[in-house]
Design a protein that fits this description.
Layout lengths: L2 E8 L4 H19 L5 E8 L2 E8 L7 H15 L2 E2 L2 E2 L4 E8 L2 H8 L7 E8 L11 H19 L5 E13 L5 E13 L5 H15 L11 E3 L9 H4 L2 E2 L4 H4 L20 H18 L5 E8 L8 E5 L8 H11 L4 H8 L33 H7 L4
Parallel strand pairs: 3-6, 9-10
Antiparallel strand pairs: 1-8, 2-3, 2-11, 4-5, 7-12, 8-9, 12-13
Helix pairs in contact: 1-2, 4-5, 8-10
C-alpha cells in the first residue's frame, strides 16, 4: 500500500537546539580537561537568560568564568546578537553540581549509568545517497544546513538563526520513495526581508539539494506560512536541552528509546548505546545483509552486559537475523566500556552533534561521528561469505 511519511528538522538557532549546543559544548569543555569526565548537563534558554543545571565530575574544578565563556561563545557561533538574546549581554545562571555518589557506584565498576532501552536504525533508500537514513529526515536536515550555510557565508542577507523544515515523502506499494508531496520551511528573518525574497532563497537552496524532477510544485512548497517570522529564538520561545530527540535520530521513521543525548557523557548508555546501535545497523545494511535494520538493546544501572539485544529487518534480510546478532556479539563488546573504547567516545567531539542530526553525518578527523564509519562491512560480509 502506498503511503506518505513526514519528518521535520530544526536549525542550530532553534531555542531547544541552542540549549543542546550549550550542553554539548560544556561536555566537550569537561572532556578536554579530563577524558573520564562525567556530565549530565541541562540548559534552559529564554529572553536574554541561560540557566545551567545538572551533574558533573566532582574531581574537576573548572572555573565558572570558563564555563560562562563557553556558553557565550556557543551563542555567538550560532549567530545570536539580537536585542533580547545577545551573546554579549545574556545573563547566565550556573547550578551545576557533582554527580550522585549512588550513580557513580555503578559506573565506577564499568556498569551502565542508568537503566533504559536504546534503538539503532539504517535503511537503504534506493536511488538516494542519504547515508542509510530515512529520506524525509535526511532532506529536512539538508534544507536547514543549506540555509545555515547561506547565513554564515552571507550568500543571502537577512536570514536569522531560528528555522524549521518539514518534508513529506510519497512511497509506492513496494515502500520505495517516488516523490515529494510537501515541503514546509519557516525561517526567522530580519524586518526588511520580504516573503518573496525568503521564498527565492528557499527555492534556490532546494534546487541545489534536489534533482529537478523532485522539486515540489509551487502549491506544495510552504514558506513562512504565517507571512512573518521576525521574533524567534529563545526570545520567541523558551528552549530546553533534549526536547528534540526525534529530530536528533530518525525523524519518527524508527523508534526512539526515550533518552536524550546532548550534555551526557558516554557512560550514559542513552547516548553511547544508541550510537553503537546506529553504527551496527548501518554496517549491516551497507554489507548487504538487509535493506533495512532496526536494533534494540537494554541495560540495567550498574550492570555491564546488556539485558536484551533484538533485531528486525522488516523481512528484508538476506541471511538469518539470529545469525546476524550472534556474529555482532563476537565482533563488538556491547558493555558500556566496550562501546566507549570501540567508538572512542571519551574525546571532546560532541559539539557538532547538537544540530542537524546525530546520524547520517560524515565521520570527522577529530573522531566526531565515529559511529557513522563503515569499518565492519568487510567482517560482516566475510562472516556470511558475501561478495
Amino acid at each position: 500500500m502506498s503511503f506518505l511519511f513526514t519528518s521535520e528538522s530544526v536549525s542550530e538557532g532553534h531555542p531547544d537546539k541552542v540549549c543542546d549546543a550549550i550542553s554539548d559544548n560544556l561536555l566537550d569543555l569537561f572532556l578536554s580537561k579530563e577524558k573520564t569526565s562525567r556530565t549530565a548537563i541541562e540548559t534552559l534558554a529564554t529572553s536574554n537568560r541561560v540557566v545551567l543545571a545538572g551533574e558533573t565530575s566532582c574531581s574537576l574544578n573548572i572555573d565558572k568564568k570558563e564555563i560562562e565563556q563557553t556558553v557565550r561563545q556557543t551563542i555567538k557561533n550560532i549567530g545570536y546578537e539580537q536585542q533580547n538574546f545577545d551573546w554579549k549581554t545574556v545573563e547566565i545562571e550556573n547550578y551545576l553540581h557533582c554527580q550522585s555518589a549512588d550513580i557513580a557506584l555503578g559506573v565506577d565498576r564499568d556498569g551502565a549509568g542508568d537503566q533504559g532501552i536504546m534503538f539503532g536504525y539504517a535503511k537503504n533508500e534506493k536511488g538516494f545517497d542519504c547515508a542509510y537514513m530515512p529520506l524525509a529526515i535526511s532532506l529536512s536536515h539538508q534544507i536547514l544546513q543549506k540555509l545555515k550555510d547561506y547565513r554564515h557565508n552571507q550568500t543571502f542577507q537577512g536570514l536569522e538563526p531560528d528555522a524549521k523544515s518539514q518534508v513529506t515523502i510519497r512511497y509506492d506499494d513496494n515502500g520505495q520513495a517516488i516523490g515529494i508531496e510537501k515541503i514546509v520551511v519557516s525561517t526567522q528573518h530580519q524586518e526588511n526581508l520580504s516573503i518573496e525574497e525568503i521564498r527565492h532563497i528557499v527555492k534556490t537552496g532546494l534546487s541545489e539539494i534536489l534533482p529537478a524532477e523532485w522539486l515540489p510544485q509551487e502549491t506544495n512548497l510552504l514558506v513562512n506560512p504565517t507571512g512573518r517570522f521576525v521574533i524567534g529564538g529563545p526570545e520567541g520561545d523558551s528552549g530546553l536541552t533534549g526536547r528534540k530527540i526525534i529530530v536528533d535520530t530518525y525523524g519518527g521513521y524508527a523508534p526512539h528509546g526515550g533518552g536524550a543525548f546532548s550534555g551526557k557523557d558516554a557512560t550514559k548508555v542513552d547516548r553511547s548505546a544508541a550510537y553503537m546501535l546506529r553504527y551496527l545497523a548501518k554496517n549491516i545494511v551497507a554489507a548487504g545483509l538487509a535493506d533495512e535494520c532496526l536494533l534494540q538493546i537494554s541495560y540495567a544501572i550498574g550492570i555491564a552486559d546488556p539485558l536484551s539485544f533484538y533485531i528486525n529487518t522488516n523481512h528484508t534480510a538476506k541471511v538469518d537475523e539470529t545469525a546476524i546478532l550472534n556474529n555482532i556479539k563476537q565482533m563488538v563488546d556491547l558493555t558500556p566500556k566496550g562501546i566507549i573504547n570501540h567508538l572512542e567516545l571519551q574525546k571532546p567531539i560532541y559539539a557538532p552533534t547538537a544540530a542537524y542530526g546525530h546520524f547520517g553525518r560524515t565521520p570527522e578527523n577529530t573522531g566526531a561521528f565515529s559511529w557513522e564509519k563503515l569499518d565492519l562491512v568487510k567482517d560482516l560480509k566475510n562472516a556470511f561469505n558475501c561478495r
